[in-house]
Design goal:
This protein has 186 residues and is mainly beta. The protein contains 3 helices and 12 strands, in the order βββββαβαββββββα. The protein folds into 2 domains: 87 residues, Elongation Factor Tu (Ef-tu), domain 3 (Beta Barrel); 69 residues, PRC-barrel domain (SH3 type barrels).
Length: 186
């Protein structure tokens, strides 16, 4: 379901002593993070903001983006921001190029179902695997299922219904989830 705000990054951990934070980008364009950009701090896309920050410095590293905010000039202050998402107003977002694109924040939390196996769980993350993204699908009490985000596998993404339909290739489901009837015999 579309939110009024779009998630663009996740504040992972404090870095160094000058208030920088390692950020996981939730956008395919890291140029989106610019000095002077005003962002909201939220716990998820539907939550009310619990703060507002302005980016003061950005550096791209192999581990992710290192970002500093105005007024955040030491490690202790940076730690207080960690665990939050950075969000921007939808009207301030970079325009999508075509109808097959979507904002990551719009699909996080979607229910993922396979045409054969039914409900697989909730989309909790997307991993950048170089050539394509990988969906991380979680169901309580079960191992996460990692699904390549390929047109041959992902059949539909319905943002309004908050659902993703997939057709898993043979053997993929069995890599992550036990399909035997008697788990106790192991």
């Amino acid at each position: 379901m579309k939110s009024v705000r779009l998630l663009i990054g996740y504040l992972r951990r404090a870095h160094g002593i000058h208030g920088d934070i390692l950020v996981k980008s939730l956008t395919d364009d890291d140029a989106r993070f610019t000095v002077g950009l005003k962002c909201f701090l939220v716990k998820d896309s539907d939550a009310d903001p619990h703060g507002e920050v302005t980016i003061s410095r950005v550096r791209v590293t192999p581990s992710g983006l290192l970002i500093g905010f105005r007024g955040c000039d030491n490690r202790e202050t940076a730690r207080r921001y960690c665990g939050s998402y950075l969000a921007v107003r939808r009207e301030d977002a970079i325009e999508l190029r075509d109808e097959d694109e979507f904002y990551t924040g719009d699909i996080l939390g979607s229910r993922v179902s396979d045409r054969t196996r039914g409900d697989l769980g909730e989309l909790v993350d997307l991993i950048d695997a170089g050539g394509s993204d990988v969906l991380v699908v979680r169901k309580p009490g079960e191992r996460d299922v990692l699904i390549p985000f390929l047109k041959s596998i992902v059949q539909s993404v319905d943002i309004e219904a908050n659902t993703i339909e997939v057709v898993l290739p043979e053997g993929l489901f069995e890599l992550y989830r036990d399909t035997s009837d008697d788990v106790s015999s192991r």
